[in-house]
Amino acid sequence: MMNIAVAQSGGPTCAINASLLGVFQEALKEPSIDAIFGSVNGIEGIINDHLIDLKTLITTNNDMELLRQTPSTVLGSCRFKLPDREDDETPYKQIVETLRQRQIGAFFYIGGNDSMDTVNKLSEYFRELSLDIKIIGIPKTIDNDLRITDHTPGFGSAAKYVAATMREIVRDSSVYSLPSVTIVEIMGRHAGWLTASSAVLHALGESAPHLVYVPEAKFSLDLFMKDVRQEMAKNKAVIVAVSEGMEVPDGVQSGVVDNFGHKYLSGIGKYLEECVRREIGCKVRSIELNVMQRCSSHICSKTDIDESEAIGAAGVKLALSGETGKVMIFRRINDMPYTVVIDSANASEIANNEKFLPKNFIVPSGNNISDAAIKYFLPLIQGELNIIMENGLPKHFTIQESLLR
């Protein structure tokens, strides 16, 4: 018999709890697994021995259904960067102590690029110690920027929210006779996957977004203004989608960074709004979708939730087969009918790397998204959950705050 532990890290998504549920349900089926511990606030919970017994918290089928539809991380998250052990071995020793004391034979880390760095570092450390504790990464990020995997859990739901909101903005912007420009700022630090996904509206007969700008295409303010003027000659209400990570003049964004050296981004939409107002003088507004992109579970993609749960379960199976230092991935077999298989890759091939939009996903002019990209995005946003409601609002699964302190 052995115990296992699971943690969640990085930015919240609509699907990260579905992956937690997948790990939990698969572990329940395995006679060799006894306790299923949840680590509070990611890897920090392992370092500080702050674990909770999930079997005492998730006790009914209704709990599981609620967990599946609940956004964000019920166990809490963190932005803790595990140092190189040559610089500081202390947290590694604390992790080993907790895992040994709790008789944990497998640890599952649900997270994004930086979390997979932790998976890689821990698996190498355990290998050098000849410590038989399996470490498996379960991917998660709305940015969809993990290498090797076709897409990441959480992205499909975020893309669905962005596209649905964009379509509502189109309807709202079309009611007035005055010409207007609406600039929608969408999350995406270095990779424009989420911004590009707004173009799925083109497959539904919408001409908007009329312009789409992603970090993978070189940006010029002069060309942007020219593009806007050309679109205004054809459309009364021009809708622009822009990634938050687009390069802009110094001072537009804060310059503040997190523990991993990532800049906190915001400001490109407002900056472009002011440029359009100054140079064109039409009605213009900017909209920053902000955190709603990550946690709008009321319009999540059923495909995304189902896949997220399945990839969590597959991670448990992989660990029990003896593998470690792996990250679970999706391999797409076909677009229509949409078919994927779940596989794994070495964490060392994924950690500290980013996946960018392919060149053929961006039109040659660099100001919109191609049909090839739309074929990639559309399957990921399909289906809706039968959301459990309470007094007219989606009901969520929560853990008592006292247990998370």
A few lines on this structure:
The chain has helices at residues 16-29, 43-47, 61-69, 90-101, 113-128, 155-173, 193-197, 221-232, 268-279, 292-295, 302-320, 347-350, 371-377, 401-404; strands at 2-8, 33-39, 51-53, 104-111, 134-139, 180-186, 211-213, 237-243, 283-288, 326-334, 339-346, 389-390, 393-394. The chain is an alpha/beta fold.
Account of the protein in words:
- A hairpin with a 4-residue loop joins strand 10 and strand 11 (339-346).
- The strands form three sheets. The protein has a seven-stranded mixed beta sheet, sandwiched between helices. The protein has a four-stranded parallel beta sheet with strand order 7-8-6-9, sandwiched between helices.
- It is an alpha/beta fold and 405 residues long.
- It is 35% helix and 19% strand.
- It contains 14 helices and 13 strands.
- Helix 1 (16-29) packs antiparallel against helix 3 and helix 1 crosses helix 11 (302-320).
